[in-house]
Give the backbone structure.
Amino acid sequence: MTSSEPRTPGSAGLVRLVAAREVSSRIRDKNFVISSVVIIVLLLGAMAFQVAVNSGSDASRLGLVGGDGRLGPAVEAQAEAVGVDVEVVDYADEAAARAAVRAEEVDAALLGRAGRGPELLVIDRDPTLEAVVDGAVSGLAISDRLLEAGVDLQSLPEVAVTPLDGAADDGQQVVVAVIGVVVLYGLLILFAQFVAQGVVEEKSSRVVELLLATMRPWQLLAGKILGLGLLGLGQIVVIGVVGVAAALALDVVDVPGEVIGTVATVVAWFVLGYAFYASVFAVAASLVSRQEDLGSVLMPASMVLIVAFIVAVQAAGDPAGTLATVTSFVPGMSPLVMPVRQAAGEAVGWEVALAVVLMLVAIALVVRLGGRVYAGALLRTSGKTKLREALRAERA
Amino acid sequence: MLEFDGLHKSYGSNRVLDGVSFTVAPGSMFGFCGSNGAGKTTTMRIAMGLAHADAGEVRWRGRPLDQALRRRIGYMPEERGLYPKMRVGEQLAYFARLHGLDAGAAAHAAEHWADRLGLGERRGDQVEKLSLGNQQRVQLAAALVSRPEVLILDEPFSGLDPVGVDALAEALLEQVRGGVPVVFSSHQLDLVERLCDSVGILARGAMVATGPVAELRRREAGRVLRVVVPDAPPGWAAALPGVRVVSERAGDTLLELDAGTDDQTVLAAALRTGRVTHFAWREPTLVELFREAVAEPAGEVAA
């Protein structure tokens, strides 16, 4: 027995101790590690799948023999105009091209024969490729004829394109927001559950008596929520960074700036959503003493979360709809619905600000009232405590 | 002094504590006895701030216990409580830190107490993997790890094997020698008798007897006489004036004498029945003191 005398730890010190314990015990928890890995693998897998699907359907390889050097560029130009990728590979003679088609090195081979019309060799017929080649060949022929006839091609009118309200970009952001909301929903459920399980674990193992002999209930609650919250925040940030980095690397998105903005919005809403649900779940969990009873007390809050999730997914299709607009202000639902509306460009500044303020008020209420229920119910380790009893016990 | 002063507590119409008072001097061990449901646990929980007394307070060194003072108390709750999935060493260090030790001192103290209570090899194991007896030792270590000024232990010996009892008893005596007041509750009265400087017997929410074991014994001694008369007919002593037969089995008789009754009359009566193989005043055991204290209406023997 050596070393310094014990001193009285302050509130911040106690909260930090509790938080550190939560983090260190969760990080070593197998379920947590597995779930983290699974989320990231799913995310990367989804992106890889999209890349694979895109490249598989769009990029075709076309072998080319002859064609006086104009046919190749013409096919590529035509392909780009209709939005497919065609790669042209030159072959020396018909035999080599035929062999390449049979070996499936190319999807088709185009034989530009002097005097006769060009011939397309295929194994499986591909209407898109055929149309592209057809268009290129006839385009060349038409311009040849027109040139022969002395028509001036420079004076043809070009169509000017003006995008209205940037619809295409928003679409991409909404997709990112929906993915973000799915992740957000998953993490909210996961971490709020962690908090709830932790509360019940302390009650069912009775360790709570020892804890409350050294600290106040609110310090225990705050440490638990903060510790797990930091872990959750870390996880969603990692997912966001990995997701954005992979999306950029794999070229899945076109406008990185806006996507990063949407991801940041989702992360910010996670903080608010987590603070709310973690508190609600913790308070609900403090009413029971066994993990088996947890499901029933968490039911109402879980339902709100699930409904919000469904509305959010639905809002992606109709971000301006009444349902989405109204629920994006409702505390508890706003963290899931508002990011989608924001991404779709449907929410103006004051709307977002109002939703945030309403959410903050709700959090403050839950913490105030919930803290009292938690304090009153924590030491009642037999069966289920009613809300009213818990409030009364705290006052006594 | 650790003073429990006039604690009252009711749950609804159920009066659990009705003026419980006793004091424990620094460097002494206080055994807290009482039948099940007498209010021992409630008394200790009030001291730890886990229940609110309707009236009365608990003081340490003259100051009512508050959160800061309670942090200097080592507590072992009746319902054992540890994190089942946390490792023994980390768990002890965590509790030490909650009681205000810094990280280094906490780790050191955790190691010391794990070794001290024979848990050295299990320090890296999760608590739930330990036997119940070993979990009990971890629980005790958690109470001792913060170098407490006061120890309040609810049934610390229950569920321990004799070796565990000895290890715990030795650890508690060491604390007492270091000047720590120790309060523990137990149903193992032989243990209480052996370890404690003083005892308190709680019945129906009030202390019916408190004081050093020897003093309680003296108070009750000189009243019960044991006479063994193998040849005597059953009921041989029933007619003697001023004598009450406490028990009688094959001539082995326990008699309670009124204040004015002469023991020599009893001896003469015994001799009339034949051989007398044993005749002596009997020192009551704590068990008997306990039975008596708990059985009689509180007024008669209250300290």
Chain B has two domains: 2-211, 222-282.
